[in-house]
Amino acid sequence: xxxxxxxxxxxxxxxxxNAAFCQDHFLEHTRNQVxxxxxxxxxxxxxxxxxxxxxxxxxxxxLWDILIDLGYDVTGFYLDLGIGGYSHRSRDLSISFAExxxxxxxxxxxxxxxxxxxxxxxxLTGRVPCSGCGLSKRYEFNxxxxxxxxxxxxxxxxxxxxxxxxxxxxxxWNTEMLARQMPVLNERILGxxxxxxxxxVRKTKPLVKLSERETAAYxxxxxxxxxxxxxxxxxxxxxxxxxxxxxQLEESSPGTKSQFYAGFLRKAADRFRxxxxxxxxxxxxACISCGAxxxxxxxxxxxxxxxxxxxxxxxxxxxPARRSPARRRKSEA
Amino acid sequence: xxxxxxxxxxxxxxxxxNAAFCQDHFLEHTRNQVxxxxxxxxxxxxxxxxxxxxxxxxxxxxLWDILIDLGYDVTGFYLDLGIGGYSHRSRDLSISFAExxxxxxxxxxxxxxxxxxxxxxxxLTGRVPCSGCGLSKRYEFNxxxxxxxxxxxxxxxxxxxxxxxxxxxxxxWNTEMLARQMPVLNERILGxxxxxxxxxVRKTKPLVKLSERETAAYxxxxxxxxxxxxxxxxxxxxxxxxxxxxxQLEESSPGTKSQFYAGFLRKAADRFRxxxxxxxxxxxxACISCGAxxxxxxxxxxxxxxxxxxxxxxxxxxxPARRSPARRRKSEA
Lengths: 333, 333
What we know:
The structure is a homodimer. By secondary structure, chain A is an alpha/beta fold. Chain A has helices at 23-40, 58-69, 84-100, 110-114, 118-125, 129-147, 159-171, 175-178, 212-221, 238-252, 256-268, 305-318, 325-332, and strands at 12-14, 19-21, 49-54, 73-80, 104-109, 152-154, 184-185, 188-190, 197-200, 202-204, 284-286, 293-295. Chain A has a 6-stranded mixed sheet with strand order 5-4-3-6-10-7, sandwiched between helices. A two-stranded antiparallel sheet of chain A has the order 1-2. In chain A, strands 8-9 form a two-stranded antiparallel ribbon. Chain A is globular, with a radius of gyration of 21 Å. The first copy, chain A, starts with 11 loop residues before the first strand and ends with a helix. Chains A and B meet through α10 and α11 of A and α10 and α11 of B.
């Protein structure tokens, strides 16, 4: 197996590109794929201030490394979710990486900010852990970006992540989610004239042209120490079933994943645009608790999902004796 | 396991319906699912003359049995594809069924009609066997229905077939096919006024609410002798990979298939309607060879896919000595 570029010994092959690369040219290829995604989808400009959500895993650390090398003004944001040793280890690895590359890093803890960890949130509200975690992360990432004055939020979702999400949304024909399944979601402004303010920052996913295997290979070849273990709360997650099913098809027919994703963006995404809840701006109002955009309810008291969930968790945490045995059993399971 | 209806011992369980049935109530349930599909999608009226494409397999024979029991005026149509012993056995089983149920059956042979079998067509033209076979069947089914005066063509595609096709079309975002992925395709008229004639008969799939496992169970419990072997030419068919991938998801989450299919019809199919090639009637003209509808080409000589393929096969068959060794090797493989 020889490098496609220099014909030296190759260390990584990428079947869907029908190509193999030596270490140097693989790293270059990987950086190029990120640069191409940024350009193709007009993710951000050279002088934008970027906030990168960092989990301590291969994807976000590899992306951080690449964005620094491409010369972007990028700051890491680590949100401690309070998931025991897993969170400790991933936080330490994120801090080590920042020190090694002299990169800016903001660390916050969901427990310090809101009074509960992700496992507690799940136990108190009965929400599936991944659901409460996703809600909290989306909320905190956006809040941190707004508070700290960043123009763009960047996440490390790779091709496999996007393909599994797309597959799940297609299997259930979740049209509202299909309307938002893009590598870039523009910022959302609330209010008009002098009252206008950014309520949701622009969100971008520069790894959409790279598979999980490629970001892992990049991290390994660059000597990046990342948390290898999976989140202990992810077990039974249907997202994993979707990943597995599509990965089997990719093995028998390399390129299936990227064709599925790129084909969606090119030939189908526009067909679902009208299904976006927020397509009609009149339906979006500011949450009465925190000001984040939320869908207008019948009552005048529109509160966003995070504030409603937080209020429920806070109430239950304060009154454990009033919870019924059935609910307590469920929440402790 | 008890029957959902009568609480007697159940012989078949259907996980996606969270139900089990005794023999009698399973047969009744199966007939009801066919009757419901016919009604829901307005497939045909009680007095329509139906031509059912019969392969000798479980699906088409079970459907034939059910349509007779539901009181429809249904005639079987067996097309001998000339695939060796497989075709002989499936033809014999179709004839036996017709005799047993005193049903009308039309038998034609593609070799007699056009001068080549499906394996020959594939070898002569270099087409994948399933592709040439599908083309020939669609053509011959329609031609037979028109010539013999049937209003509706009926095929035995079951839920698994439709789901695998839908999955393949979605993976490749084949929008033109997604526009036609319906349990009913209306007839197509060519010409205007006194010249107007049906060029494509109405096509319907009454088994879309039943899985492969259910049609097999129906056939077994009804004592229907069907060809169990798969077509020997199907090996490596990507359709089978898609079936396998979705079946795994169905096992971990019963109902995935029917939700995927029903959700498509309800929430997505309309979004692809404009992608149908024949959406614009001006683009559809009569084939200059046979009169079948075909897409207008730049030249004035619009010929349908079947006639072009047949012309190529006929020419090659007549002049074997003029074929290059490379082509001969390929076609004999």
